[in-house]
Amino acid sequence: MMRLSVAKRSERGGRERNEDALGFCANETLGCFVLADGTGGYEGGAVASETVVQRVLKHFSATPGVDLAAIAASIDVAREALRRARGSHPQFPDMDTTIATLMLDTERALAYWSALGDSRIYLFRSGRARTLTTDHSVLQSMIDAGIFSGELRGNRKRNLLYAAVGSAEVPARVVCDKPLVLRSGDIFLLCSDGLWESVDEETMEALLQQVETPEQWVDGLAREVPDPESPEQDNFSAMAVWVGEREEVTTRILPLSARD
Fold it and tell me: Which of 16, 44, 179, 202 has the most CB atoms around its CB within 10 Å?
């Protein structure tokens, strides 16, 4: 059975408040890891992101299970949580959030994931990055359709989303088609767009070769953000999940309850 090691970091950047939220719950065999990036005006984004993260984790803790039905249900749980939160906070009628959810079963060696918006989940296998999720942004859809051939990073229209948790309809390519078979040494990174916009995959890979723990890695990623206090710098957050053994790194096993 493969072990799990987790580290996370979230920074305000140059904004007045941090509207990212992230958390996880795990035991010796099952884990659920969630990251959200809120929008919606003064404090509304923070309420939206925190609400959906905690609700998805609470649901997983109450009904622990890792399969396609469970990862698909996480989207429904998040959407219902946001709907209720909007009703409870009429001052934030337009609050919304992205969400990225990773579920792992180390006993069966399987991983499932889902995402809405432009928060991402990466897999690093043998040190190389692979993006598991699809950005639901207008610019990414133009790239996919062959309409736009420029760079995604640095484009002013990059963060214009056509879907997030509060959208009227859920688009295609939100939940993985099939599980990924885990290998010992696999590493996952959940991150908000404020992080991946500032730190490219090549830098992520290079940093991974220089560290021994997930804590060192997420700290290194944060240090790579060029000007973290610039007014242009969005909130940036990262959560690293290491599967199996890596050198002499020890792993902390967590109780099956939602953890901040």
Answer: 44
b/e per residue 208-239 (b: at least 16 CB within 10 A): beebebbbbbbebbbeebeebeeeebbbbbbb
**Which DSSP helix (H) or strand (E) runs through 62?**
helix 44-62
As a whole number of angstroms, the distance between CA 15 and CA 19 comes to: 9
- Dihedral (C-alpha) 15, 137, 130, 54: value to the nearest 10 degrees? 60
Measuring CA to CA, which residue among 7, 1, 51, 60 is closest to residue 256?
A: 60
pTM: predicted TM-score of the whole model, two decimal places: 0.91
Give CA–CA dist 91/77, Å, rounded.
22
CA distance 142 to 179: 27
Positive or negative torsion for Cα 174, 244, 241, 256 = positive
Contact 30, 104 (CB under 8 A): yes
φ and ψ at residue 240, rounded to 5 degrees:
-105, 135
pLDDT, tens digit (0-9, with 9 covering 90-100), for 143-161? 777 887 667 777 777 778 9
Domain 4-240 -> CATH class: alpha beta
